[in-house]
């Protein structure tokens, strides 16, 4: 397929006079979007919203399923282009991410088709009450056009047709995607698949636009465009906070759902450490180095209480470090940032640093998996040790006591995940630690590892700030749709003017709370 | 009961060195809270949270029910004190608000006891899948200490033990209440009732504190105290926006749920106008003047298409204006603000103003119910006509056509409510108007009036900005509890470490989504 490197507004490429930025991979350079592109994309999205908000769930589902089919039809080219742009391996990594991406699209198609996500509630009139009670019915309705900012580390699943786009379209919201500048060709291929699906299903073409930009003012202009009603973002704390601030400072503030990563602490409790020190070390290291550490859920801190088990844990990690090979990161700036990060940690007094001896000979874009060890006092004195260094490294903290373990937990910022390794007896003996972690994290894991985020109804991929800007929201799993909707109540509406979800008959067959009882029946 | 005018921190009065402010009513003056009071209240709330978050729903319910009993035990003194401070009439108005307040407390007790509000979702492990699927379970957990800012116009129901406090306590969150300075004695009586209920049910005393302040820096300090995790507010746009900005600018931003009122537009469609012009005029006027217009849902704009029906509508309204008597508003500043508001509207070219002829002789704190009439062109030229003037006035807009009616609707800001009067044929013929209003409002009403907000599961008392700072939230009805909670997922937790809501047995009997199916059963 011929790639253009152009911005796509409402289904068609729109040339730019603002110059181009250069990229690696199949596109030598890409056109920078202008404020006019932003304006055109948002206006088209607003017009599309007027029609799309009324499109029934099954037709939204058909659109999402068609997008999945069009993506599958891209075949190996999609994988090859993404590999050329991101250096992510095709086997397993990109193949798996493709499966997840089409799986997500079909999952949200199911959510849209089922329709129960609208949380319908009906309280019927009681004319005989004093005062008479009116008939009140409420459901969730779509917020309006959503701006989606793609992540660099998931060129499919958190990008142009990723979870944010899928959940917004399922909710009834058009999307304007700001592509990540590290994979514009992948983004264009995906955008074309989305556009084809929109055409084939007869949906309004303003439902989707794709912007390319490396400029902060374009990102801020998109967030501050009056027609945009919500923002989804995955990326760094600095960028996410800037977009959150831009959204909050609007004349009409909007929700900005920024998922900004975390250190995903792992706590190994005493009995588990005694019984499985080496196995846990191996699992931890696999999780740290998976995808060259480029996951939001990469475990960047591990803590345990000192003793023979701890020594075995460290000894096994050191062996694994020595066997590790450098990996190529997504793009040079991310690799530099990783290097700056680990140099900072290495310089802290009381921190020991371990890397494979081959490190010196790694090529420029290679990142060497790195183990840092320290004690709890040093950890508690230096905030940097508890902050994310995006890439394949982890800080192992030797604690003198359970109290120090709890102090380490208490010192942490908000997290996407926190992990415990322990026997049932360990967990019972550490209820205070669990209570602390409940307050810190969006997901707690027992005897597993945080990488690998299941896409399902019960998944919560979020957490207190700075893991995200909105701890009430998830960017993975079916509940992600709730980010793009708000309730609307209808009082004393005649049946014919109510949406089908709220009509007596419940022809759409959704779960509803009727006079306090859950039911899928009509009445 | 002897009233002190003091701040109550964690159950006990704490003296202040920051001076006193004077009030009307039984307290001559009230102690100003200091930053130390804020700090002490928030610290106590944080300590209480550590215990209260683990308190099962039925015990939270018992606390809320005890608060309701203690409030009832205040008897007529509560009503008399509130009347002395707010000038709201005891018969019907305050008596009704008391019933609503204890009703709300018992409603949220029911929500806490039932427990299904936690939106539990379980996806069981599938060890045979490739890759194996872990066991994932999620539910909502309380956010932490909540700051509640009382409203002036509801001294009971949106005040110290009002809906914000009831829903926060039901969710598992301690509260720090900033009393409204216009009714400190009522607030102290209520606070003492809450404190007695906390003592009698053996709950931690840090669960509740009461602050008195007239100073912006104290309000901002409360919102920015790191221990505060969410804010509930009811009041003016200026104050609500300032608190929202303070919450968003924190190092760790928090949700600020500010409900800031609106003009609650009412649209009378042609057939309804022909058939019921006088009856609708009477209902509108009753709604405008109810409680001297001091409701967030007071209808401040009404629009209809010109014709004989419109003339009858205006004629009846003019008669009602002439029969109207001035009413005493909550406090002098609110009355002055109303007067400034209507003087501003009266000065607009193309606006006709109608007040009862007795107006000149009204006493100083009296507000004269006021009718403004204008045409759509004037309305569309002057933003002020579409902004809230808190008090008993309404702007009736004569439209030349359906298109002008829709233009008026489109020009409006976000609203708590929008009302349509129409026959089924009217509604069918005005689907575009309904679509516009869906985008503008939190609640749509047919053939009724917006004042009178039913407290139930399906109520949505919220709406797009500037009606609120968060269109996804409601401050009335059972869904208000969702403001103070966030999801937490548990992955591969042993049964014994899971909260009861997520254990296989479902001993608490809540509704859960288990492997995609809603059920109240265990497994």
Describe the structure.
- 2 copies of one chain form a homodimer.
- By secondary structure, chain A is of the alpha/beta class.
- Chain A is 39% helix and 19% strand.
- Chain A contains 14 helices and 23 strands.
- The first copy, chain A, has helices at residues 35-52, 57-86, 90-114, 163-171, 184-200, 216-224, 237-248, 270-289, 308-323, 332-346, 376-381, 402-411, 424-429, 431-440; strands spanning 7-9, 12-14, 20-22, 29-31, 120-123, 136-142, 146-149, 175-178, 208-211, 230-234, 256-259, 266-268, 301-305, 327-328, 352-355, 366-367, 370-375, 393-399, 415-421, 441-446, 485-491, 512-514, 517-519.
- In chain A, the strands form 6 sheets. In chain A, strands 15-17-18-13-12-19-20 form a 7-stranded mixed β-sheet, with helices on both faces.
- In chain A, α2 (57-86) packs antiparallel against α4.
- The longest helix of chain A has 30 residues, at 57-86.
- Chain A is globular, with a radius of gyration of 25 Å.
- The N and C termini of chain A lie far apart (54 Å).
- The mean pLDDT of chain A is 96.
- The interface between A and B is large, with 72 and 72 residues.
């Amino acid at each position: 397929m011929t790639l253009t490197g152009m911005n796509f507004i409402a289904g068609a490429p729109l040339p730019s006079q603002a110059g181009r930025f250069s990229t690696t991979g199949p596109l030598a350079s890409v056109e920078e979007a202008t404020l006019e592109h932003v304006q055109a994309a948002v206006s088209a999205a607003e017009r599309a919203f007027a029609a799309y908000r009324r499109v029934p769930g099954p037709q939204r589902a058909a659109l999402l399923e068609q997008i999945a089919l069009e993506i599958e039809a891209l075949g190996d080219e999609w994988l090859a282009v993404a590999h050329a742009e991101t250096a992510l391996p095709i086997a397993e990594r990109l193949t798996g991410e493709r499966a997840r991406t089409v799986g997500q699209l079909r999952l949200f198609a199911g959510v849209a088709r089922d329709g129960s996500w609208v949380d319908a509630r009906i309280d019927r009139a009681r004319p005989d009450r004093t005062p008479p009670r009116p008939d009140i019915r409420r459901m969730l309705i779509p917020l309006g056009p959503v701006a989606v900012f793609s992540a660099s580390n998931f060129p499919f699943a958190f990008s142009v047709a990723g979870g944010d786009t899928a959940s917004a379209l399922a909710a009834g919201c058009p999307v304007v995607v700001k592509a990540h500048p590290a994979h514009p060709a992948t983004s264009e291929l995906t955008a074309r698949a989305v556009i084809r699906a929109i055409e084939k299903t007869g949906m309004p073409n303003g439902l989707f636009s794709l912007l390319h930009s490396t400029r902060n003012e374009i990102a801020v202009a998109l967030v501050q465009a009056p027609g945009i009603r919500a923002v989804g973002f995955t990326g760094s704390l600095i960028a996410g906070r800037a977009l959150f601030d831009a959204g909050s400072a609007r004349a009409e503030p909007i929700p900005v759902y920024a998922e900004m990563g975390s250190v995903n602490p792992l706590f190994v409790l005493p009995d588990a450490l005694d019984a499985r020190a080496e196995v846990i070390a191996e699992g931890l290291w696999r999780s740290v180095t998976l995808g060259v550490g480029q996951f939001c859920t990469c475990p960047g801190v591990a803590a345990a209480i000192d003793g023979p088990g701890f020594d075995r844990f460290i000894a096994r990690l050191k062996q694994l470090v020595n066997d590790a090979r450098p990996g190529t990161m997504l793009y040079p700036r991310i690799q530099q940032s990783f290097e700056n990060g680990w140099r900072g940690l290495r310089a802290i007094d009381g921190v020991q640093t371990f890397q494979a001896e081959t490190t010196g000979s790694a090529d420029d874009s290679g990142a060497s998996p790195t183990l840092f060890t320290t004690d709890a006092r040093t950890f508690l004195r230096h905030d940097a040790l508890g902050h994310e260094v995006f890439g394949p490294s982890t800080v192992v903290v030797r604690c003198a006591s359970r109290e120090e373990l709890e102090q380490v937990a208490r010192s942490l910022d908000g997290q996407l995940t926190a992990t415990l390794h322990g026997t049932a007896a360990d967990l019972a003996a550490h209820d205070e630690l669990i209570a602390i972690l409940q307050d810190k994290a969006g997901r707690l894991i027992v005897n597993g590892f945080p990488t690998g985020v299941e896409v399902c109804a019960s998944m919560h991929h979020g957490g207190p700030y700075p893991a995200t800007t909105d701890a009430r929201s998830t960017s993975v799993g079916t509940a992600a749709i709730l980010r793009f909707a708000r309730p609307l109540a209808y009082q004393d509406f005649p049946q014919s003017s109510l949406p089908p979800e709220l009509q007596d008959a419940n022809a759409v067959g959704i779960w509803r709370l009727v006079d306090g009882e859950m039911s899928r029946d009509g009445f």
